[in-house]
């Protein structure tokens, strides 16, 4: 029996639906783990061959057949190493979210995920039948218990593997990023270790997939719950973990521990990754952004440049009579600091033409929000024209505070294919902008200090229509993320009328959010796939 073995965690960026490409990536990583690292075992993230979440692709027989062909290829091309790979698997008419143990040309064991999450962004139970048996495989004398992601968040599956004689646990993950996830993962893994005394090797995905970002950070904990090694967050690679049998107990040895990132850095990196992978995986040459001189579009432009490089970011300033000189100057400075292409397209004449065309319909009705929205829609139309002609993806610039209360124009500033700040409260926008400026100033200081304005009417300020953002965000965080009631929020010291107004706006604007572009999830409750509410609903629109 070997006393020391090398296992490898393949922290890969996979493309949902690309079974052939993901299979190639598995074969390449297994070959490298065997030949370069000299590993005896390599294991991969959850649902490696399909990417996660594959959603209703799982209902297609031709998709499941492609997965079987991928598994056959892996079996044929990865001899001399044990491979544990995630894939959907049909057994006796039931589809499992499975981990397949492949060795010397064949699938030698099969584990079906027990705990199927059906909350937040997860829909496992829509597709899969849960398993109930443990899977423990012998790898050169070390008995490896196999589990999949959510399994580690409950006592049962790891305990079962321990009872079945496992020496250590490997856990295959597709664990989406949110700003609290890092500590939550460490805490549940330590709970499992406290229950069983078994080390856990945790391999996560990396990369963006529509509204989720996988942040990597694959790691190994020993049987005391001590962190022995951790792969970088927001990176891909093959990370070795040496395990040794000491007095009959297998334990991971100390390896590199990548430092954790600051609270702002981790969120900023998640946004950069989310934008990059959305653009790259959907084959866009670059992005187009309406740059107003305000903080939101400035931050989106900075994220886009960090994701794609300045030559793939195109900013367009579209002034009207309400655009201040300061906005002109600041937008120009931001574009210059970021080194992006910057065009100015005045929309005053278009705005006037629209108003003349509509005047027979509107008669002598006074100007109101209609005219404000018209400016926004002209900008949206022009950005989409630039996208159509030059090919870039339009990035929407709305933040979570605005999306919550409907402070955005449908088919206006809401146009765009991806919305990087969709899950970022306005107060957090400021923190991220300061963080980004700390890496090299790209947003002029006064953009961070001047009061936010939509500049759609004379001397307009966001606070004309909304509470101060610090108060709005506190109310939203309590109501949206903690599901607090109006009473509870008032009890925490907020003004009742303001809370009721915010709650009414929140529920009333579900229709806008349903039509909004996807954006990167960074909180525990992101609008969209993560937090699903009915559009047509009586709840919360009236107090009581
Ligand atoms: N339940 C429902 N289901 C489906 N559609 C529904 C609907 N309720 C209204 N609608 C439709 O939505 C329309 C109202 O929405 P919308 O047209 O967006 O207009 P609305 O929400 O009335 O106005 C946009 C708001 O966004 C603010 N804003 C803030 C910052 C930036 C910008 C900007 O544009 O740059 C704008 C602006 O000041 C104003 O308060 C209705 O006229 C109706 O057609
Ligand atoms: N003059 C403009 N030129 C180009 N785009 C604009 C202009 N004004 C608004 N936009 C676009 O519409 C979005 C909404 O802008 P608005 O200023 O109304 O609200 P905001 O949420 O404060 O955003 P920002 O902080 O970017 O100004 C902007 O982020 C920008 O993409
Ligand atoms: N794919 C999963 O089972 C992930 C669920 C798990 N709670 C996580 O977010 O890490």
Automatic annotation (TrEMBL):
<keyword id="KW-0520">NAD</keyword>
<feature type="active site" description="For glutaminase activity">
    <location>
        <position position="113"/>
    </location>
</feature>
<dbReference type="InterPro" id="IPR000132">
    <property type="entry name" value="Nitrilase/CN_hydratase_CS"/>
</dbReference>
<feature type="active site" description="Proton acceptor; for glutaminase activity">
    <location>
        <position position="46"/>
    </location>
</feature>
<dbReference type="InterPro" id="IPR022310">
    <property type="entry name" value="NAD/GMP_synthase"/>
</dbReference>
<keyword id="KW-0067">ATP-binding</keyword>
<dbReference type="InterPro" id="IPR003694">
    <property type="entry name" value="NAD_synthase"/>
</dbReference>
<dbReference type="InterPro" id="IPR003010">
    <property type="entry name" value="C-N_Hydrolase"/>
</dbReference>
<feature type="binding site">
    <location>
        <position position="181"/>
    </location>
    <ligand>
        <name>L-glutamine</name>
    </ligand>
</feature>
<comment type="similarity">
    <text>Belongs to the NAD synthetase family.</text>
</comment>
<dbReference type="InterPro" id="IPR014445">
    <property type="entry name" value="Gln-dep_NAD_synthase"/>
</dbReference>
<comment type="pathway">
    <text>Cofactor biosynthesis; NAD(+) biosynthesis; NAD(+) from deamido-NAD(+) (L-Gln route): step 1/1.</text>
</comment>
<dbReference type="Pfam" id="PF00795">
    <property type="entry name" value="CN_hydrolase"/>
</dbReference>
<feature type="binding site">
    <location>
        <position position="397"/>
    </location>
    <ligand>
        <name>ATP</name>
    </ligand>
</feature>
<feature type="active site" description="Nucleophile; for glutaminase activity">
    <location>
        <position position="149"/>
    </location>
</feature>
<dbReference type="InterPro" id="IPR014729">
    <property type="entry name" value="Rossmann-like_a/b/a_fold"/>
</dbReference>
<dbReference type="InterPro" id="IPR036526">
    <property type="entry name" value="C-N_Hydrolase_sf"/>
</dbReference>
<dbReference type="GO" id="GO:0003952">
    <property type="term" value="F:NAD+ synthase (glutamine-hydrolyzing) activity"/>
</dbReference>
<feature type="binding site">
    <location>
        <position position="402"/>
    </location>
    <ligand>
        <name>deamido-NAD(+)</name>
    </ligand>
</feature>
<feature type="domain" description="CN hydrolase">
    <location>
        <begin position="5"/>
        <end position="245"/>
    </location>
</feature>
<feature type="active site" description="Proton acceptor">
    <location>
        <position position="46"/>
    </location>
</feature>
<feature type="binding site">
    <location>
        <position position="373"/>
    </location>
    <ligand>
        <name>deamido-NAD(+)</name>
    </ligand>
</feature>
<feature type="binding site">
    <location>
        <begin position="290"/>
        <end position="297"/>
    </location>
    <ligand>
        <name>ATP</name>
    </ligand>
</feature>
<comment type="similarity">
    <text>In the C-terminal section; belongs to the NAD synthetase family.</text>
</comment>
<comment type="function">
    <text>Catalyzes the ATP-dependent amidation of deamido-NAD to form NAD. Uses L-glutamine as a nitrogen source.</text>
</comment>
<feature type="binding site">
    <location>
        <position position="512"/>
    </location>
    <ligand>
        <name>deamido-NAD(+)</name>
    </ligand>
</feature>
<keyword id="KW-0547">Nucleotide-binding</keyword>
<protein>
    <recommendedName>
        <fullName>Glutamine-dependent NAD(+) synthetase</fullName>
        <ecNumber>6.3.5.1</ecNumber>
    </recommendedName>
</protein>
<keyword id="KW-0436">Ligase</keyword>
<dbReference type="Pfam" id="PF02540">
    <property type="entry name" value="NAD_synthase"/>
</dbReference>
<feature type="binding site">
    <location>
        <position position="175"/>
    </location>
    <ligand>
        <name>L-glutamine</name>
    </ligand>
</feature>
<feature type="binding site">
    <location>
        <position position="119"/>
    </location>
    <ligand>
        <name>L-glutamine</name>
    </ligand>
</feature>
